[in-house]
Amino acid sequence: MADISMTSDPKTIATDATTEPVRRTRFAALRQTDLWHSFTNHPSAVFAVCLLALVALTALLAPVITPQDPYDLASLVLWNAEIPPIWNAEGQWPYLLGTDTQGRDILSAILYGSRISLVIGFASVIVALAVGLSLGLIAGYVGGWVDNVIMRIGDVLLSMPFILIAILITAVATASLPAGLKDVLAAPILIIAIAVPSWVQYARTVRASAMVERKKEYVMAARLIRVKPWRIMLHHILPNCLTPILVAATLNFGLAILSEATLSFLGVGMPPDQPSLGTLIRIGNQYLFSGLWWIVVFPAVQLCLIVLSVNMIGDWLRDALNPKLR
């Protein structure tokens, strides 16, 4: 009989033996950080993270847990229209929150709409963050006429109402596209429309930090050894600007979701066959005074819960990352 200990690979045994302790060490190190301690001792932050995770998980699993696909017109049955919620005497299973005037299940529409709203809000924040960080670093590090041009463009955008810029961008984009591409590109157009007026806040914050950091000794030393400017900006200046940017991005995530809902409510957002939460609220608002209150109330409650949880997380991050409050 062959000896098992002789046939085993010592490197494999060492790798298996050290993988689990490394994972435990990293988790233990995370639990020892001030951020984790602040999070676990902040009940509202824990509640907000759990609520947002629940909303995101149910939106992600919407095709599995919902009784119908609200985007599939063939699955809509008109004689199941205007059914009240399940606790009402006229309610029917499986329409827990009732149906709208087209026989669309409200719960299914909310979960699918939440997925669209979350994706558009997150993507618009990422785009605005990338543009704002890049332009802010360049303006603060280079200075001169480059700084003046970037900041003057930002001042022009700040002088105009946010919603007006977003409506203008969506109107121009939809008018320039062929009829067959308007609904297909509705989400990317919304992302750009929300991101364009949003990058200025990130750029101004990063620019102020970059102007301070570029005069410090470690940046001057990097220049003396001829480190490339883009490496100085990315590896030396940017890490010192991330704390206020992280807080601003978290708070702007909720504003981006509200902006998407506002644009959709005004009719320049997502189309009715791809309803977001704003589209559902716009459609339900037409039947609010006819007794079909559930068509508008439940999407509005879902939108409020998402924005509330994001704002609570942003407030916690602002307090946890503020060195004056430690």
UniProtKB/TrEMBL annotation:
Pfam families: BPD_transp_1, OppC_N. This is Peptide/nickel transport system permease protein. It is found in: Cell membrane. SUPFAM superfamilies: MetI-like. It is a multi-pass membrane protein. InterPro entries: BP-dependent_transpt_permease, MetI-like, MetI-like_sf, OppC_N. The chain crosses the membrane at residues 45-65, 116-144, 156-179, 185-206, 241-267, 287-308. GO terms for cellular component: plasma membrane. It comes from Roseivivax sediminis. Keywords: Cell membrane, Membrane, Transmembrane, Transmembrane helix, Transport. The keyword Metal-binding does not apply. The lineage of its organism: Bacteria, Pseudomonadati, Pseudomonadota, Alphaproteobacteria, Rhodobacterales. PANTHER family: ABC TRANSPORTER PERMEASE PROTEIN, OLIGOPEPTIDE TRANSPORT SYSTEM PERMEASE PROTEIN APPC. GO terms for biological process: transmembrane transport. Its main location: membrane. Gene3D superfamilies: MetI-like. Belongs to the binding-protein-dependent transport system permease family. Residues 114-314 form the ABC transmembrane type-1 domain. It comes from the Bacteria.
